[in-house]
Amino acid sequence: MNRVLALTLAWLVLASGAELQAARKTDPKVAGAVQRALDYLAREQRPQGYWEAQHSQYRVAMTALAGNALLCEGSTTTRGKYSRQIQLAVDYLIERSRKNGLIGYQNDYHYMYGHGFSMLFLSQVFGEEEKEQRREELKYVLTKAVDFCGKAQTKSGGWGYVSAKDGNDFDEGSTCITQVQGLRACRNAGIPVPKEIIDKAVTYIEKCTTKEGGVQYSIRGGGARPPITAAALACMFNSGEYESEYTKRLLAYCKKNLTVTGGSSRSFGHWHYAHYYYAQVMYRLDGNEWDKYIRDLSNTILRRQSADGSWKEGHVGPVYTTAINATILQLENGFLPIYQR
């Protein structure tokens, strides 16, 4: 018993030391920017628990992304500065869970995005939930969500903006990646995910990949897209695929085509989306490469932050961009399993 106690105390000392070291390395400017961003998100949450994009769009997706950014700070549904906001977000998404398993609104013409991001967010909450009744509720919602996701998959193995049934079997890369990462997050949290669903999705992504290593918009074509390629690479890393020849091709393409400086005005669209995923990849690579990347990326992001803590770039709206940037800047916190090394 004494030996167990001694080992426990030693572990606590080491953990505390690691936390102190991490705290010393934190750039005060980054920490301040993150604090302002999260406070902005907290202010923007509606009393019903949701966030929304411009023109009152994408409430489910924005709620999941904003909630995820707050989780990265270390708060949970029961502890921390943003526990109330996270709890309201969870309540909102659980209430949006339909009988068929969809988390969202059937009349939303992009509902698969919200569904995928909700699986990601709620699975991270599930792992930290302390209340037994709420854990069972989350488990039920996530299990149904996985089932819906499998049934929404197209014959080619991808996903579109809506289910295969509602979208005439149309699929495209970015929605597919959202589902894959959400499914992996669920599986990591202990929710059963049939292996064949993810296997079909990985095959789909591989078929969308050009000779140069870029992932196309769709299996039907559309040209290689740096943001979708970065997202695909992040999903491969989530599954532990670091050294395969396919992964190396994707990484080489990203290193050639993704730039840090210049923000959303760069030659490729969806700059923030691209670096949301690419940052996850670079973080797992670790070492000097990550240090330089995150330093340059942070400087670029911080220069564009508004006085109220938000980022007002892009066509989706400030909640989206602020949630994405806040998540990137908090990757080193290491609180969420899906982003950990």
From TrEMBL:
The keyword Signal applies. InterPro entries: Terpenoid_cyclase/PrenylTrfase. GO terms for molecular function: transferase activity. Keywords: Signal, Transferase. Residues 1-22 form the signal peptide. The keyword ATP-binding does not apply. This is Prenyltransferase and squalene oxidase repeat protein. It comes from Symmachiella dynata.
